[in-house]
Amino acid sequence: MTKLLFLLPFQAKAALLQGEVPVGCLLVYDGQIIGKGKNGVNFTKNATRHAEMLAIEEALDWCKNRNVAYKEVFARTDLYVNVEPCIMCAGALRISGLRRVVYGCSNERFGGCGSILDVASDQRTTDSQPVLQCVPGIFAETSVQLLKEFYRGQNPNAPNPKVKKAHDIQDIPLPSLEGVQMKDPT
Ligand SMILES: [Zn+2]
User: Fold this and answer.
1) pLDDT, tens digit, 9 for 90 and up, residues 122-146
2) Among residues 7, 51, 107, 135, which is most buried (max CB within 10 A)?
3) What is the rounded CA–CA span in Å between residue 14 and residue 96?
4) What is the distance between the alpha carbons of residues 80 and 59, in angstroms, rounded to a whole number?
5) How far away, in angstroms, is 113 Cα from ligand 1 center?
């Protein structure tokens, strides 16, 4: 299971290489990846094409192909994402009945796990939506580094060109899994 998480920063970096805000995620059920996503907002020109939304769609297909009820699967599925899900995604994940989100750095602009709004656990929504557990701290340092790299490229006052070339960012080190502590799902 832990080895699968090594793919997470690569998802984020793949988004960065394609000129997207570097966010990538994995949906893990019973030790296997049933959905993955990387941010595709710029490519699709669709502001809802966040990594998490793409991963949810992939996981729904996974369930359909196996003729299993998604609610049963999602209730035992965890999302691993390098940045705190935004308000939209946190809402979608909670409505989908996901068990838990493990994320990297905080999302100080749109975070839906408490940084801006606490969509994940706000009790005012409905009785039928269980709280979505949110646990920060996986690959946080790498995530911050990737985001800084992206926004440096977007800033017109920055000395760097607006569009980053692959060779400009290939040197961002990806983390090793040494020292990454992951609790087994409870
Ligand atoms: Zn989002």
Assistant:
1) 888 766 678 899 999 888 888 999 9
2) 51
3) 26
4) 13
5) 11
